[in-house]
Amino acid sequence: MLEVQNLSMRFGGLLAVDEVSLDVQEHEIVSIIGPNGAGKTTVFNCMSGFYKPTGGKILFEGKEVQGKPDYKISRLGMVRTFQHVRLFSQMTVVENLLVAQHRHLNTNLISGLIKTPSYRTKEQKSLDRAAYWLDRVGLLDLANREAGNLAYGQQRRLEIARCMVTEPKLLMLDEPAAGLNPAETKELNQLIISLKEDYNVSVVLIEHDMSLVMDISDRINVINQGRPLASGTPEEIRQNDDVIKAYLGEA
Amino acid sequence: MAANNFRHALFCAFITLIISYPIIGFNLEAQGINVTLTGADATTIVMVLLAAVIVFLFQMFREQIMGGLKSIPHPLPQSNKEPMAENRRAKIESWVLTGIVVLALFWPFFVSRGSVDLATLVLIYVMLALGLNVVVGLAGLLDLGYVAFYAVGAYTFALLSQYTGISFWLALPIGALLAALFGLVLGFPVLRLRGDYLAIVTLGFGEIIRILLNNWTTLTGGPNGIGGIPDPTLFGMEFGRRVKEEGNTSFHETFGIAYSGEHKVIFLYLIALVLAVFTALVIRRFMRMPVGRAWEALREDEIAARSLGLSRTAVKLSAFTIGAFFAGFAGTVFASKQGFISPESFVFLESAIILAIVVLGGMGSQIGVVLAAIAVTILPELAREFSEYRMLIFGAAMVLMMVWRPQGLMPMRRIHIELKRQE
Ligand SMILES: Nc1ncnc2c1ncn2[C@@H]1O[C@H](COP(=O)(O)OP(=O)(O)O)[C@@H](O)[C@H]1O
Ligand SMILES: [Mg+2]
């Protein structure tokens, strides 16, 4: 469903991403790994429309999306989280999820002002969807807390829930386990698998936690200094000499 | 550290001296056809020196002073307490609000004409501040030229009444819609800018509109303004002593009561009250709708908002346009109340006052904004002997607010949403 072909991104003299290719099939978890500064986040930024890539193509469900504005890409069903959590921190937890559903509630101003029956139905639906996902990530009891007051692990889960209420087809997670304790990482592990199994989303995952990556990935892409180094199943990656030398070896 | 402080304080004192001495000390005096420059007399020099010393001391001990200010007991101690149960609070709040509106409905019949007139002005500011609150408080767009939309509303009514004899009731929606249209058109190129840049450009827009009104004499009458703006009518009844418009009747004759100038003032007040309540209700509703949440989301984290499919331009424009709409509303009422308008009513100071109301009231909070509007409009009237120092007091109040309660008199409280557990 997603195909990245020879993606390049240049910042002035720095070639942050150099001819990176990857593809994601339906119902798949694909990971991108590589040392810090390898260009992983930059790949995400190109895919999600924050940067306009300087070279290459990005095809989502057969359509070219590179260079499209970010909000349009998100509306196509490609939604991301951020390496550093980005919540609407002064809004409550449930409001965070309602913001994400503005498209499901895309009615005109007047029908909202006078609360037409169809508006009410849609509003109730989005509240129910929010409740469902909060329950799913264990935050339902905190629904009316300010998002900024949540613990770090809870913020991470809220960010994922906020993506899920948009009903995406492809979820991009940028280091979701960073800063989590082992128990939380395990929960995250299960959550990501369940997203694929039960909700039929494909996942692109950037992650440093090797056990997590090896555990849940169907395929892994390694990049190093902007260049693709290897790609394959976790088993293949584990045994790849280049990868061991460049990345796993030093860890 | 101390030496650094000392140097800084000395520098500030020096700046105070070289700025205030020429401005306050020197006087140009006309003697016949000659202009002579006279120096300052002794008291002025002493005052200027005193000011420099105060500045020096303040800057020298700035940290201690600011620390001291912060440690002064909180003016509103209950604001730190645990909130009461959510549904009880909501109930009390709605009762209190209803009570205030009912009181406001009957109040004008028992007080002087001047008070009612002033109250009408307060209500106009309430409308303006509620509208600006959408732009600044909710959407986080610093708009320093808000008065331009107020002017558009007022001039729309004034010009239409002059050229077509339109009535207040027809002008009200037209003025508001035209102001909204201006907001849309002006907003489009401007809203790409952020923060300070946006503030400066909107400031410029405000001035451009005012200067345009001032110089386009053939249409707007320039600095002379436009007069003879009609009062509102009540189902075709006029409030003047004599009926001006063909086909209208007069209020006091219809009801067989003696003519009184107060009827008109009270009627205008009631209109302003209804419109202010309407404005508050509509904006309150918006805040609980997807648009309102989108405004806040974009203010909180633009990148995250965009990553969830919110279009930055559309969201910002909607805030700008809706804010302008209510300014147009207020402008129409203002034109009708004054009966005469000129560009002088739409100077930058007005924008600054409206903005101050929003900041004092607590960005995003409606009750706070209403309280602040009352305070900012009425206090200068009560303390007329201090009118020279009005801006000084104003500035001091703002600084104190920033130290004590940067979130405003009544910071916005999030609404509580009940969720049912799904299967
Ligand atoms: N907006 C930008 N401007 C300039 N350089 C950037 C920008 N974004 C990322 N880079 C550079 O690109 C390289 C890759 O960064 P990044 O994609 O964040 O790495 P990773 O996520 O793999 O740790 C880094 O050297 C970084 O400094
Ligand atoms: Mg990164």
UniProtKB/TrEMBL annotation, chain A:
SUPFAM superfamilies attached to this UniProt entry: P-loop containing nucleoside triphosphate hydrolases
Domain of life: Bacteria
Keyword vocabulary terms for this entry: Amino-acid transport, ATP-binding, Nucleotide-binding, Transport
Gene Ontology MF terms in the entry: ATP binding; ATP hydrolysis activity; L-isoleucine transmembrane transporter activity; L-phenylalanine transmembrane transporter activity; L-valine transmembrane transporter activity
GO biological process, one term: L-isoleucine import across plasma membrane
One GO CC term on file: plasma membrane
Annotated family: Belongs to the ABC transporter superfamily.
Name of the protein in question: ABC transporter ATP-binding protein
Domain ABC transporter: 2-250
Keyword Transport among record annotations: yes
Pfam families listed in its UniProt record: ABC_tran, BCA_ABC_TP_C
UniProtKB/TrEMBL annotation, chain B:
Transmembrane intervals: 6-28, 40-61, 92-111, 118-138, 144-161, 168-191, 197-213, 265-283, 317-335, 347-380, 386-404
Alphabetized Pfam families for the sequence: BPD_transp_2, DUF3382
UniProt-annotated location(s): Cell inner membrane
GO molecular function, one term: branched-chain amino acid transmembrane transporter activity
The High-affinity branched-chain amino acid transport system permease LivHM N-terminal domain, residue ranges: 5-107
Keyword Cell membrane: yes
GO cellular component, one term: plasma membrane
Membrane topology field: Multi-pass membrane protein
Swiss-Prot/TrEMBL keywords: Cell membrane, Membrane, Transmembrane, Transmembrane helix
Keyword Transmembrane helix: yes
Name recorded for this polypeptide: High-affinity branched-chain amino acid ABC transporter permease LivM
